[in-house]
Design a protein that fits this description.
The N and C termini lie far apart (58 Å). It contains 2 helices and 6 strands; from the N terminus they run E-E-E-E-H-E-E-H. The protein is mostly beta strands.
């Protein structure tokens, strides 16, 4: 069994899509993660990782994840071959079956989740 976990910051807001053949929602998350070490020139090295999420988990990601939030995704991986450009190196993406949000919810989302009587008061 192969399981891979990646932690990083979301590079853009989540765009929920629909698989036309199955009708199942999905999204591709892209995270950026800095390595613990620098290159010989002293510059940070950042990796960009693509994560495919399907079904109710994709809907949850669309509802709660936002550009810049930190998240952890776990699952197996899929190799991507670019048939239209054979000179391009193959890549991979994580097919996530677990996503954990590591950043707090946005203020407006947290306030919207509270019952009306518990909503914070605005200063007049």
């Amino acid at each position: 069994m192969l399981k891979i976990t990646a932690i990083g910051n979301l590079t853009r807001d989540v765009e929920l899509k629909m698989d036309e053949s199955t009708g199942i929602p999905y999204t591709i998350l892209r995270i950026a993660s800095d390595r613990r070490y620098r290159n010989r020139a002293g510059e940070k090295i950042t990796d960009f990782i693509s994560i495919k999420v399907r079904g109710p988990l994709a809907e949850r990601c669309a509802a709660f994840a936002y550009k810049g939030c930190k998240l952890a995704a776990s699952g197996d991986f899929e190799t991507i071959v670019f048939s239209e450009d054979p000179s391009r190196q193959p890549g991979f993406l994580i097919k996530a079956n677990e996503v954990e949000f590591l950043s707090p919810r946005r203020v407006d989302e947290g306030a919207a989740a509270l019952p009306e009587e518990e909503q914070p008061c605005e200063a007049a």
